[in-house]
Amino acid sequence: xxxxxxxxxxxxxxxxxxxxxxxxxxxxxxxxxxxxxxxxxxxxxxxxxxxxxxxxxxxxxxxxxxxxxxxxxxxxxxxxxxxxxxxxxxxxxxxxxxxxxxxxxxxxxxxxxxxxxxxxxxxxxxxxxxxxxxxxxxxxxxxxxxxxxxxxxxxxxxxxxxxxxxxxxxxxxxxxxx
Amino acid sequence: xxxxxxxxxxxxxxxxxxxxxxxxxxxxxxxxxxxxxxxxxxxxxxxxxxxxxxxxxxxxxxxxxxxxxxxxxxxxxxxxxxxxxxxxxxxxxxxxxxxxxxxxxxxxxxxxxxxxxxxxxxxxxxxxxxxxxxxxxxxxxxxxxxxxxxxxxxxxxxxxxxxxxxxxxxxxxxxxxx
DNA sequence: TATCAAAGTGAGTCTCCACTCATTATTCTC
DNA sequence: GAGAATAATGAGTGGAGACTCACTTTGATA
Lengths: 178, 178
Description:
- 2 copies of one chain form a homodimer.
- By secondary structure, chain A is mostly helical.
- Chain A folds into 2 domains: 8-54, Arc Repressor Mutant, subunit A (Orthogonal Bundle); 58-176, Tetracycline Repressor, domain 2 (Orthogonal Bundle).
- The first copy, chain A, is 74% helix and 0% strand.
- The first copy, chain A, binds a DNA duplex through helix 1 and helix 3.
């Protein structure tokens, strides 16, 4: 990544505001929400949004990168099961991550960021396996597949707490022995 | 449902063509595909589509009703695990069902049709439980939740055959004992 | 086969939204 | 603080797509 000249103070402030607004708007209404809406929430003119992020996809890519980084950080602090549980619980509040993990509609490539998340989950998986909490036969691909599936399910299905718990119980049982 | 006067022969023919075309187009490109595209595939003018289905959502509701009915029928011929496997395998080819099960974006109510599918899966679940193939503690809500999650995951993630199998293995193990 | 209601047609309307750019405002540097 | 560089502004453009309607065609009925 190449560093350009440092941003002017107002530009830095606005860039941050736009990212926050975009995260909130897209989380609430999904990625179909308009860029205009984001600008309004950020208290900024539409042109400013496009100065910082030349296309809507660039904007989406930026917030998703940020969200993924957060996930990676979170993964570092938890065990596999807790991470799953937490992510699923948050899914409904984070349409964006889910849309990204799902690759739904939006044309975005974030191989690095996604790769980092996979690595983080990979570490959790190894730990869990080492502790005997997960069967040896379970590999990373299906673990990621389950993670993304459950997030999408929880999000779109609007699962309540109980349903989240019941569903995760089944999946965890499957991870422990299969 | 109130029966109007019977459709004229050409109207019946076109209605069927439109439904087939819509199913194919939406399966291939998702529900974002345009009504114009559907009309073209059906070999019919755009106005004809809108005569039969006054809004795009009406069209979507119609094909989803048909697809759900097919699923219910299929559920009647299989055991729970086979049904899961088959549905997941088909998910990638049927963006539409998944979009429906997910309720993503489109504003459609099909409580009846969805209810029938739940009933069908409920029967499969009971059979599986009776045969000792599924743990007693497993209930219908989480079974449906897993079903829809996996479909969405498989669809959006573009799972290959191996990943489908591996992921289902974990889930099936979880259903057997938890 | 003559009639006419039902159905088909497709150019056109309308709305929404991503994106532009000439102009104005703010920061930075000396 | 003046001048230059950078950023913000927001009315405007273009294109896509859902939906309409005046007119033409077709199928059912007598």
